[in-house]
Amino acid sequence: MLNTLDSTAIQMQLSQGHLSVLSTCPRKFQHLYLDQLGLHQDPQLQERLDLGAQFHQLMQQQELGLSVESVSLANLSLQRWLAAFSAQPPAMISGDRQSEQRRILQFEGYLLIAVYDLLIEGAEQAQILDWKTYARPPANLQTAWQTRLYLFMLAETSDYPPEQLSITYWFAEANNRAKCSLTFAYTQTQHEQTRQELSQRLRQLTSWLTGYQAGQSLPQVPISANECSKCSFDLRCDRAASPVENRAGLVSEAQLSPETFIGSLELAIATDINQIPEIPL
Ligand code: SF4
Question: 20 to 30 Å CA-CA from 253: which of 125, 184, 247, 277?
């Protein structure tokens, strides 16, 4: 990924996944996206990535009014997820609908990227919809970078004021169908908070990247944050509680939260904006 920077951070493309990992641990960001270690060695992870990507394609096809039967019949999970959506879709506003809507925003010398599974633009409201193929929403979904960045970017790239925006997540594997979706509203105050934090983090990243190119590593998260015990780079970082062979550098799905997992997959291959597979889980 650093090669794509051509010795500068100006062209670096950042999605919510980059920001999520960067917030968790700058050294992890380095290992995954600058040093490009891990992730692609796990076939189960790849399989799940492919299935999630297929589901998103099917949802896009459905949105375009195309048949999805021949594709979805081949896989039980896909069948189940499509049936769940058909039985209980999230509440959606009326308006112009566009699936797989990509937005780019230049900010602090970076290109911020958002890919909305579905964007509905109404007369006085706009709604972002996001499909998740897991059951349980991460506890911090409202403050997750996906929620914050997606809403921030829509406010910055449209005429809607923040108070007219919302994001809705729909969970394909939700046990309780009555709780299969979650919607978060947005405010001007939240918008300014996100702008401030983004600005601060990206300036810090620029400084770290300059150091990285001079041979310095990005900082490790403090041990007290309790992130290292969940991280597969613990041996590499000399943060392992008990040494286990052949672990360093490999990241498994089980060791990543759904949000980080999605972001990581997205980011590991995000050197070209046209190749970013959004939300494949
Ligand atoms: S082991 Fe800890 S310091 Fe190292 S990358 Fe993982 S979270 Fe960061």
Answer: 184
Q: Is the separation of the CB atoms in 39 and 251 below 8 Å? A: yes
Cα 36 to the chain's mean position, in Å? 18
**pLDDT tens, residue by residue, 98-131:** 999 999 999 999 999 999 999 999 999 999 999 9
The domain locations on the chain are 2-275
Q: Whose CA is nearest to atom 7 of ligand 1?
A: 228
Contact residues for 143 (Cβ-Cβ < 8 A; gap 6+): none
- CATH 3.90.320.10 fits domain 2-275: yes
The whole-model pTM stands at 0.83
Q: What are the residues whose beta carbons fall under 8 Å from the beta carbon of 233, sequence distance 6 or more?
A: 27, 28, 31, 37, 38, 239, 248, 249, 251
